[in-house]
Design goal:
9 strands; globular; two-stranded antiparallel sheet; 24% helix; Alpha-Beta Plaits; 219 residues
Length: 219
């Protein structure tokens, strides 16, 4: 959170509790600082919040639509509710839609949320699923984008947030959207330095170390 030594705290209410935090603090940071859990998927504390997944959506009194807690800053006298029926219904639908298109068997965070919010993974079954061939083009890690939830973490960590390598980018549209490389080049032909940061921030099995992948394949 921002340094609070020389600023006047902002007072807000989260789930009926009064919370005081420095200006510039996001709703997510304020809630977590108060021990209130808000689910996240695309958010990572070392990366720029991007509000892609919307699992962190909360209800702010006076706002017309649900607000992404990871990017919305607190304001004086703001009233936030993180577990209303409306909020939890939105989270269930997000998880159900995600399960309908992506292989989530190696996404522990998502599986926990599916159980927590009672999402019915079969609700939208029968639709188009992301079936992307596994990419095994280097000695260090594999890329299985059929398991990618498109959280942006790998792209961000490869770009200005951490590595400044810019080996990864977005490609395709709609259901065919996926993380890729410039001109879909093999990883050794990109600017990748094989630092492993992208693998480290991936919340699913989309990016996996080669040894881990080979061990799993042998089981």
């Amino acid at each position: 959170m921002p340094n609070s030594s020389k600023v006047t705290p902002v007072s807000l209410t989260i789930n009926g509790r009064t919370v005081r935090v420095p200006p510039g603090t996001t709703v997510l940071q304020a809630a977590r600082g108060a021990g209130i859990d808000i689910p996240t998927l695309c958010y990572h504390p070392s990366l720029t919040a991007n509000a892609v997944c919307r699992l962190c959506a909360v209800e702010v009194v006076g706002a017309r639509v649900l607000q992404p807690a990871c990017v919305v800053p607190v304001t004086q006298d703001m009233v936030v509710n993180t577990e209303t029926d409306r909020v939890n219904a939105a989270r269930r639908v997000i998880l159900e839609l995600l399960a309908s298109t992506v292989d989530l068997h190696e996404a522990p965070e998502v599986l926990v949320y599916i159980e927590r919010f009672g999402a019915r993974v079969e609700r939208f079954s029968g639709g188009v699923r992301r079936e992307i061939p596994l990419k095994d083009d280097n000695p260090f890690y594999v890329r299985d984008y059929s398991q990618c939830v498109m959280c942006w973490r790998c792209i961000q960590v490869c770009a200005e947030d951490v590595q400044n390598t810019f080996a990864l980018t977005w490609g395709g549209r709609g259901i065919d959207s996926q993380v890729t490389t410039a001109f879909e080049a093999a990883m050794p032909d990109t600017t990748c330095v094989f630092c492993g940061n992208c693998v480290g921030v991936c919340p699913t099995g989309a990016l996996k170390g080669k040894v881990e992948w080979q061990t799993g394949a042998d089981d």
